[in-house]
Amino acid sequence: MPTAASHGRAGRVRRFLVTLTFIGPALIGILIFLVYPLAAAVYFSFTRFDMFNPPVWVGLDFWEYVLFDDPTVRIAAKNTLVFVLLMVPARTVGALLTAMLLNAMKRSRSIYRTLYYLPALAPPVTATIAFVLLLKPGTGPVNTLLAQFGVEGPGWFNDPDWAKASLTLLALWGVGDLMIIFVAALLDVPQALYEAASLDGAGRWHQFRYVTLPTISPVLLFATITGIIGTFNYFTQAAVAGSVASGQVTSGSGIAGTFGYPENSTLTYPMRLYSIGFGNNLFGAANVMAVILFVVSMTATIILLRRFREFSGGDS
Amino acid sequence: MTQSIPGGRGHHVLGFVARHAIGIAMAVMFLAPIVFLLLTSFMTSDQTLTANMWPQSWHPENYVEVFRKTPLLRFIGNTFLYAILATGFMLLASVPAAYALAKLRWRGRNATMVLIICMMMLPPQVTTVPLYMMWANTGLTGTLWPLILPMLAGDAFSIFLLRQFLVTIPDEYLDAARVDGCGEWRTLLRVILPMARPGIAAAAMFQFFYAWNDYYGPFLYTSENQDAWTISLGLASFRSLHHVEWHLVSAATLLTMVPVIVLFFFAQKAFVQGVTLTGVKG
User: Fold this and answer.
1) b/e per residue, A232-248, with b = 16+ CB within 10 A?
2) Global pTM?
3) Structural domains in chain B?
4) Of A23, A126, A298, the CB nearest to B257
5) How many domains does chain A divide into?
6) Residue B237 distance to chain A (closest CA, Å)
7) pLDDT tens string B272-282
């Protein structure tokens, strides 16, 4: 008996070591690139430091500074919230409508799908430059076209009241990835449910409301939450649009000089996080912003994880 | 959908026309920005400042000029280096990790899966300052290595995607291999890899696209060292004394799309499958 037991234990240890050869690198990655920087960010948020000298403990100084004293942080947080409220619904509804149109197509579906998906392939910098060009206030094609109808086009990326809407249009243009997810979800709705509803005299709207929506709601939730988290770290398009629209076209780290153009209207939370650290050298404050961003995005992730468990039955 | 519409042939034709009218109108909207970029890339610098959308004369030499005005070739080389190495490293570490999460039983598996999902969802700015300091200590800031080397530990999103794919492979195949005396690594290499090819292709493409399109990473680590720039960083550098050189920006911008589109058309099926997998089964 003792031999069998030790053999069993040896077998288990051996199996675990084999498992480690598979998952080991990923576990090390989790330690170095998730656990360590998170712990460091929390610690640094209570310190004053630059990149060269060791951090000095200052307690809640930077927390107070970020939460109450820096007006730009508040502007950036508000802008990011507005972006969430504009982009997430716009993209979700846009993707759903496009997917429904595609699913109503028959043989031509794959051609249309490819065409609609193409913009989602454009690198973000590319897409942003294209939109700034397209929406140039004076001579851009969109405003030229509007002028043909006697409408005076807005200043788009150059007008603080329109810059967020312009970026939302850009986000809507690249809706193809979400659209493909919805196309698949719509195809998964059992045809029999539609037939039953139709026999009960349900019209198109009722079929959509009581059959389609409930069936695809898990996918909708997934899209909404990943959309929200994705908008929390919205950086590239806003940074590039500000730089190109301002006419500065600064490159390298100089781009931070045009962050938020025009008039801080496109300054997002992660942009302020970057500039408060690398621009203003207040790395303690940058880490305060990082910890806040972490807490907010993890709250959203926890909701997602709950759904994930329900989907895959917990264990597998 | 059509069969539920009451009425005869007339309704069918009407529905067909309406669908395609909307479909084509939307296709035009989706493609217009790219077409306009293409037209602008053939214009003279002066014409880009006018409202005239059609090139008065065609200047394909703009596509040569972009390489002379900036070290575009170098940017492209850097971007390829980043994208290819990151993708290769990612696959080396992520495929075995996904296998362990999908098909091996071990303590801590669910907890690891939760951590992977947290990592996938974590906005990169949260860890920016500590990681930047870490890389500054190694002296690798100013290069693209801080973006490439971490891939040796796998990439959270790719592990998640691959795991979702591997779960769909029936256990019977694994049991058969094990009965034949295959160890776990042999099972992975001989049995799973051939079956998981579409999933691996999708993960590789996503990673390649991510690196190719990445702006924040190269911006953070290389913005002070132009020699290490990727195209994303270099794109915005076409500026003359007085204004943006739109014709050159457009040409360079379109060039960055070429590899992405070529890759997409070669592996469209795997790609669409990958997008679907991450969304629906997630």
Assistant:
1) bbbbbbbbbbbbbbbeb
2) 0.90
3) 71-230+264-280 (1.10.3720.10)
4) A126
5) 2
6) 6
7) 777 777 654 43
